[in-house]
Model the fold of this input.
Amino acid sequence: MILAAGEGTRLRPFTTSEPKPMIPIANRPILEYAIQALAKNGITDITIVVGYKKERIMTHFQDGKSLGVKINYVEQKKRVAKAGTAYALSMVKGKVKGDFLLLPGDNIISPSLIGDLLKKNGKYRIVITESENPSKYGVVELTGDYVRNIVEKPEYHISNVISTGIYKFSDDIFKIIDKVMKTGKYDLTSVLQTIIPDTKLTAVKTSNVWSDVVYPWDILEMNAVALRKCGTKTSGRIDKGVTMKGPVTIGEGTIIRSGTHIMGPVVIGEGCEIGPSVCIYPSTSIGDNVRIGPFTVLENSVLMDDVQLSSGSYVSHSVIGEGVEIAPQFSAVEAEAHVTLDEECKKVQRLGVLIGENTVIGSQVSTKSGIIIGSDCRIGHHSKVDCNIESNTKVM
Done:
């Protein structure tokens, strides 16, 4: 069972028209990593709970045949004000018998992590790991190999051990979910807190690849994690005078022009035109049909499909949404940033700019580090953007 119904409001503007599990990471939807991790462990019967922008998921993955699995879909229709993970899981009640795995659809999950979960004993199991930012997650307290308590997003430090949201359950969990939801609680943490006193919840410790995306800047970290597993595969046309070091993947129909320097890990999609004399540095993903003009520098960034980034630009530690058009001499320099999101101020160590889909930016524009520019914006020539810009805004 994969939960992929969430709206991902904290990831705006990148979830304006795309569900969170479909955000591209190393040019693949996040959800695809979970499906392939299951398939490589011989688990091919998959049910995905969908909701927000469900058509995007269902059209892309269809019946799962292309990935070697069989996918069924169940729609989560919100009937409660705050529908949590327990409510989402309740959508498949009666559609599963016996033991099953539960995965979030917005995590990078390695096949070996699923292997760890399958090898461990216990009727109920939970995959745990360590995080430098445990306050974003459910923090787990242990007694030996068993969970003693789970505290959701604690206000004070308890430990660095967190829940990944990956579980092994039996179908009798649905009776407990029904009981807990009658009390007005719809989150899975409340369900687990109910069963912990009487039932052993086995903690499966893993150091294998797991990455979560909560805020827009997490896309960069998740992308870097995914790229570490990418190899070298080059198609298209690579002109003389192009230098490449490290793992670099280049898609079919892409042209890399002379004088361009690429230092992997880097992934470049299909039908792109890069250069001449472009520098692309590690942890960068470039989607399909992207145009990058001469003398442009890119590092540790994600460019989604159909982006046009014109000549003489510098983009670092940034995410640029689908269909964005940027005129020459654009500058997005990274630095430590304090980002305002949902009336909260978050400190981010290194961040450039975050730009939503179909925004058009004029020439000689610069952005302050940590700025979020919404979707369908128009930014005039010679502008200096030093505050967040709401979607559908014109800056002249």
In short: The mean pLDDT is 90.
